[in-house]
Structure formats: structure tokens, C-alpha cells
Amino acid sequence: GTAANQHRTTRMVWDASLHLRFQRAALSLGVDQVTPKALLQALQEPWLSRENVASHLQKYRLALRKLAGLKPTDALPVGDALIQLQELAIQQHIERSAEALKAEHEQQQQQQQQALQLQQQQHATQQVEQQQQ
Predict the structure, then answer these.
(1) Cα gap 58→45, rounded to integer Å
(2) Fewer C-beta neighbours within 10 Å, C or N terminus of the chain?
(3) CB-based contacts of 50: which residues, under 8 Å, 6+ apart?
(4) 29 Cβ partners below 8 Å, 6+ apart?
């Protein structure tokens, strides 16, 4: 990039559990009026910056509007409608995360199975070699 943005740190990845904590903090503090600083304090992650949280909050508010079928420039719903919208977003996130975790777990099991088969083959080969000696 240009000299102006070379000092920029690498993009922060919000993993599923951190995002869920962010969503719950935003829900309890009021997503429509909460400040990035207040969310940062609620999350208690020393490596998170206010900028990380500010950017994520902006994206989250946009995602909530999209989920509600609103335009990006529309105001967020208020009261119970906003709470229900956030609860829906949390529920969807948990379901998506569960699917991703299940897929990840299945992949790990598959890798372990392959590693075990490889070990068994190597062991069998060694036994054959020992018998031939």
C-alpha cells in the first residue's frame, strides 16, 4: 500500500466466541447508543483496540439493518423490535458457528483417522522388516 497506510496492523479476525460476546455486550448495553469504548471495556480483551471495536460495531449495525430488511441509511428499529432483531442475529450466529464447528470437528477426526492408519501401516511394515531379518 501507500506510505500512509503501511503502519496499519493486520486485519483483526473476530472468531465465533468473541463475536458472540460482542453481540451479547451490544444487546445488554444497547446496540443503538453504545460507544466503542464501553464495548471495549465490557469485552475485557487487552489486545483489542477501540478502532477494532468501532469498526465491528459499524458493520454489526449494518448487518442488523440488512437482517431487518432495511436500507443501510435507515434508522435501526427501537425498543422490543431492536431487541428481537438482535436476538435473531445471535441465534443465527450460534447456528452458523455450530455448523462451522461441526465441520471443523469432522475434519479433525478425519485427519486423526488418516494419521492413525498411516501409523498402523508403518508399524506393519516395520514388523515385516523385522521378521525378514
Answers:
(1) 19
(2) C
(3) 36, 37, 40
(4) 38, 39, 42
